[in-house]
């Protein structure tokens, strides 16, 4: 899909840049990686009023062209490298109209690169509420570029912005915001001459960043380094001088064009709310209360839709068994595929509710406050404050959370964060926890308010956070690094959640969960059903002959006889042999050979455990008596007649899954981020070892 114009969106984090990208491109967008790096590249297409088509590139959020992370380094590389296929014809700099002073630093740097620029003054509605008045015409005149007031969340001013983009090739180049050449006149002149650079600020940026810029040859980088030594250039001092000069320009600009009402100078609402929500003590109590409410809701609100989904699958399996002729293929589809899928589909309501709450916390701005509060705790265990973002994101999924560690500059902090993030309870563990909790924890209220099952689930989530922080504390002594980490974060103002976005997010994430888990579960269910339905040699024939003998036929009714045959066949199947092979290892944890089969299959993905149990008990049971997986596990008995899933076994199993690295996708992304199999291998070993030890202790304490 060709475009007539390339437009890059540039801005600080929390300026609404991604919201504007979504508004401009709609569904006409794609996500990939920037060439040569594992940084997400979002591009999309937008139809302009003059009939042309613009390719919109959403560059990573950054506070400055001087990068502090790999994400931020992308911005200068794309803007400066003339050979980069993504180099834009026009840059739209998004400014938060309620926070112009901080945002304008990046604008002045981009403007001095002499690329055509348009300013999008976003969040004009919030600026107005804060008593801020901006003389847009004077603002545009002083900058020498078009300035378009917009509100991306409310889709206001978007048509005017598209019109401004249409005239991009008619935009005059803006004036310098500062006297760049005075910062290092001789060095800038020499680099401009030898590297063939026309723009003085571009030459200065090469002096600062030449060591990390891939579009420079080794000879060019070495030459710039020698020129720096020749002219006694100190990068940090030059950056400090430049920043002071830029803020002098910004202060003059704002003094002439922006006014703030005296009444608005008082504490705004966000600051007043923050005094409570980020309080050293009450902030954590409130956060705990919110978590408790979320997990109470997961059980309370999902009960009825889960029951409907479970009943539907029971009806579907029963109906298909009656409608279709008996045979291996029907058994495979009904008991294998449908039985496996039912174990995960039933948890869609809980997954949707969890993601809905996460979306609300992110959309309102509260998740940023949680990150800010947890920073104090993170520092005590040797982590960077930015580590909180992946850890909190781990509640949803470890894969994108590990990818988000790219913003952590300190190598040691980043590696520790990658190594402990999978310990945080993700959505894939939720079906396992809720299934096992519902089996052994009574569904009753405590103090008329708190549901006991919800309290246990909350405890599992908090336990995972404590575990991750504890392991991080140990790892800070194992990994050595002299770098010092730091934490810079902007707290966005509180906003009402956009309910349409929340609903869209719930649908998309639940759909992604079902599709990703569904593919694996169908594949595993088919393989597992075949392994559980067939055995080596003539074992199955001998079992059938055994139970045809008079002593069995006379003393057992038809149902018991059928169940005995099915159970013994399962035990002698390929799957049964596999389970029995590892049973001596897992027996000290309270697990039998059937649970052993589920442990093996769920190494592909944790949520496969539920589908495996559904398939195993479908094969083991009576095809004419279809039950939900929870009922099957509740009635499961050991050979001596005792329940299989006691309190000790259920909690031992939950502890195993709380620690075990049973997610192939997570291991793959750890390798992708570290470029070394040593890290995912070490992660697998330490997490599996921890899982075994904690599970062993839990079982023997509760037994």
Structure commentary:
- The protein is α/β, with parallel strands linked by helices and 703 residues long.
- The chain folds into 4 domains: 166 residues, 3-Layer(aba) Sandwich (Rossmann fold); 90 residues, no CATH class; 197 residues, no CATH class; 184 residues, no CATH class.
- The chain is 61% helix and 7% strand.
- The protein is built from 31 helices and 11 strands.
- It has a 7-stranded mixed sheet, sandwiched between helices. Strands 7-9 form a two-stranded antiparallel sheet.
- Helix 3 links the parallel strand 5 and strand 6.
- 42% of the residues are buried.
- About 2% of the residues have low confidence.
Strand content: 5-15%
Major beta sheet summary? 7 strands, mixed
Count of discrete domains: 4
Distance between the termini: 64 Å
Radius of gyration: 30 Å
- Mean pLDDT equals 81
List descriptors.
703 residues, alpha/beta, Rossmann fold, 4 domains, 7-stranded mixed β-sheet, two-stranded antiparallel sheet, 31 helices, 61% helix
Short overview:
With 703 residues, the protein is an alpha/beta fold. The protein folds into 4 domains: 166 residues, P-loop containing nucleotide triphosphate hydrolases (Rossmann fold); 90 residues, no CATH class; 197 residues, no CATH class; 184 residues, no CATH class.
